[in-house]
Amino acid sequence: MLRHQLTLAFRSFMKFKKIFAINLFGLAIGLTTVILVMMWVKDELNISRNHEKIDRIYAVMTNHDNSGGIVTIGITPGEMAEAMKVELPQVELSAGTSPFIEGVNFENLDTKLTGDGLFVDQDYFNIFDVDFIEGNKAQIMTGINSVALSETMATKLFGSPAAALGKSLKWQAFDFANEVEVTGVYRDFGAMEVDQADYFLSFSYFKQMLGEGVHWGNFNASTYLLLRPETDIPSFNIQIADFIKNKDEGSNVSAFVQPFGDTYLYGTYEDGKVIGGRISYVKLFSAIAIFILIIACINFMNLTTARSMSRLKEIGVKKSMGASRGGLFGQFMVESLLLTFFALVLAIIATFILQPFFNQVTSKTLSMSFQPELILILLGIWLLTSFLAGIYPAVYLSKFKPVQVMKSNIKGSFGELLARKGLVVFQFAISLLLIIGISVIGKQMSFIQNQNLGYNQSQLLQINASGVNPNQLDSFLAELRKSPGVENASSLSHPLVGLNSSTIGLTWEGKNPDEQVKFENVSVNIGLIETMGFEVADGRAFSADFGDEESKIILNEAAVRAIGFDDPVGKIVNLWGDDKEVIAVVKDFNFESLKETVKPAFLKYDPGFAQKIMVRIGAQNQQETLASIDALFIKQTAQAMDYSFMDADYQTLYASEQRVSKLAKYFGLMAIFLSCLGLFGLAAFTAEKRKKEIGVRKVMGATTFSILTLVSKDFVQLILVSIIIAVPLAWYFANNWLQTYAYQTSLSWWIFAGSGLILMMIAVLTVGFQAFKAASDNPVNSLKSE
Amino acid sequence: MYATEEVETTALDSIQIEIKKGEFVAIMGPSGCGKSTLLNILGLLDNPDDGEYHFLDHEVAKFSERQRSSLRKGNIGFVFQSFNLIDELTVFENVELPLLYLKVPTEERKQKVEEVLTRMNIMHRRNHFPQQLSGGQQQRVAIARAIVAKPSVILADEPTGNLDSTNGEEVMRLLEELNNEGTTIVMVTHSPHDANYAHRIINLFDGKVVTENIREQFHV
């Protein structure tokens, strides 16, 4: 019987080739999307989770209750890890680490390399899985002068991991340098970790570097805990909430733990609580993929039921010969299973072809390998899709009574017509939602890019200053300024983009002592304001023409507002106990994503702590300018410069938005394409069914245009209904999304009107093509066919 | 009563007929007199709204679709005016269909189909599709399909309606032959010539039996 059903399914596919092709490719496109998104989602869900003890690993988070609201960060005092282990019985192991530090210089004889990594406790390796190939894992960080290197670093520096073990190595970062011994080499981290460390240095040494900075009021380290299996997390959180306040009276910081595995996907906090993060993209794309698959399934349902008229005879004959409803249901399900199987095979091939491209868009290294798990998932997708697509046609077709069928007097019932129309409306509403979504994201992105950031981003070079001897910095900057093509150069303490070095240590006369105001702290050199192109609203920039610039300070407008000065220039503020005179106010400049409003910030003169050299270059001969800067840099530091352009750096703040917008564009196009494919099939079918009517009308004198209108009218009505449904929904979602930005573009009416119009045009063209074909046919042909 | 979308018409009204095993009955009457409705009820494709129908010792008037379907299998063969062969299936596969629903084993199925195709003189066309055959050949395939499961009753709805006289004559002879072998045949027809093959002719008019002429005495 199965063989009979398969044969019949095959021949029926071949007989209705056009509909078969639409169904096959539609489902294949839908399935390809689902497979790609599934791979991406699986990858996202596993990031930071590939540790054996992941269920018990927690990151300590701190809530900072400032005047501007609660700020949540994964940064703790340096002594936190040790104290928690000693005082809390639930803590089995704890590890303190430095923040992730980029651009540390390593030197072995003549080989120089920079690497990114962090300073950690020995217990770090007992909490997290780090795969050591050289060295004794139990004693990697027991000495203060130890370093563990990744396989790649070790090979580059020493030739091989084995050769690296026990060797000594020099490193340097900021004002610090040390000679250390390689005590371990570990396999490189895969893409499944957020921060891929090239090196691990000793956390004890890091605390030495901080010196007096290690106390309970300073936040400069991270703390990870391995909790005992039976630990009740809510009560543990209650217990540790005041841990820091108990150590440091007057502190406004409370602590809590977050599962380490969640830190990647749930990294957005509001009022000290997790409210989401990247997980919303995971949800969004899962939803889009499912919608695209549903659109493809709807095509299958619509075309299969619409085509049913031509199969009524088969159904009737079979029923009269004793076929049961269940048997016929089975037959149509077999057809759906078979078609979906072909589509799945196509989808798997397409996935292989599209993989490199998809990886590029998503910045991932996904690859499909046929492990039992994947095969099981694919099997599940196959069955589910077949069921989704096949159930309605199978129920619909198998329910006909043989008498009705044989008399072939079945007219589409009202309910069935409504169902088919409803499905079309649903498809197009989804498509329109996507079109509007893409337009709004695009408009917001261009709005951000054209926003005045308070400084000129173009032709502004940011060079990593590590390697430049702090004593020679000023002469080096002077040399740079003389270099051809360079307009200005200076240095500052932190990369400006995503600036994150704040203090509550700024006070002034009349400040409410209970209120804590956080300021961004930017340490700059002479000429930085001019190089960046900050606009000075009042006063003067730091200058070599005046002495004692260390006792001066410059505020941004947000800081002036926060303090409440009417005429700030000349006023005195106090920073960490030292009085400073305000010499200028600069207009607000954006150093964060435009999701944030500009925060209070001050600029102080402190050239000693230079992390970045900023260079403004001319628009002409950029390559030559860069080459001559590089030559100067090599002369100074004996290594090539590590640089980036500010405008590109600023873009990385929106990398995830841009990825989302790009992906949404592809998915949106796919949804529209699939919906139109279905409409194309349906219109072709309608035109075919009305062939005789169209023939008669033409004989009676109907024009081609009137026939076009006749055939298109029903579909245009459906699209109109979709628009009415989709527009309010789209407005609601777009508005919610824009709320996440401090600076928003407007939701102009023309986005909605334009998107609706585009959809309508695409649909009319699709239907019109079929209608025109029907209308321009010689009526004799259609009338003869009866 | 038969319901169309517009109006309800009474297709059959107070009909009382008995058809004996082995009989050959022709039903005649003008279009719309209820012939096809009667045939559908006799063939268990439809239920009467009222009244009784005894088929092979079952009172089937109130049978559900499922019950009718299982009783239909193997007991009733249909021959239609428009042949109603399935276009996507070959001659062999079309004829095989009833046996598939009866779950006859493959080997036996093959043997039975070949036997009946040979008898219908269409064996050489076994791998052709219906569209490749002439009308007469198609109707022979349809008859082959109707009799392959050896049903006790064959219901024929104007079996010669779409055929020329030579082919029509041949079909009628086949039906006569089957009847001689013991199969009960009920045939709806417009053709007095075809009706002459039957033992008994029932004339319907406006859903009522108007006359019954017994052409030759039928003996069980």
UniProtKB/TrEMBL annotation, chain A:
Pfam families: FtsX, MacB_PCD. It is found in: Cell membrane. This is ABC-type lipoprotein release transport system permease subunit. InterPro entries: ABC3_permease_C, MacB_PCD, Macrolide_Exporter_MacB. The chain crosses the membrane at residues 20-41, 284-306, 327-354, 374-397, 418-442, 666-687, 715-734, 749-769. Residues 21-240 form the MacB-like periplasmic core domain. It is a multi-pass membrane protein. GO terms for cellular component: plasma membrane. Residues 287-402, 667-779 form the ABC3 transporter permease C-terminal domain.
Automatic annotation (TrEMBL), chain B:
The keyword Translocase applies. InterPro entries: AAA+_ATPase (IPR003593), ABC_transporter-like_ATP-bd (IPR003439), ABC_transporter-like_CS (IPR017871), MacB-like_ATP-bd (IPR017911), P-loop_NTPase (IPR027417). PROSITE patterns: ABC_TRANSPORTER_1 (PS00211), ABC_TRANSPORTER_2 (PS50893). One of its GO terms (cellular component) is membrane protein complex. Residues 2-220 form the ABC transporter domain. Signal peptide: none annotated. It holds the Pfam family ABC_tran. One of its GO terms (molecular function) is transmembrane transporter activity. Keywords: ATP-binding, Nucleotide-binding, Translocase, Transport. Gene3D superfamilies: P-loop containing nucleotide triphosphate hydrolases. Belongs to the ABC transporter superfamily. Macrolide exporter (TC 3.A.1.122) family. This is Putative ABC transport system ATP-binding protein. The lineage of its organism: Bacteria, Pseudomonadati, Bacteroidota, Cytophagia, Cytophagales.
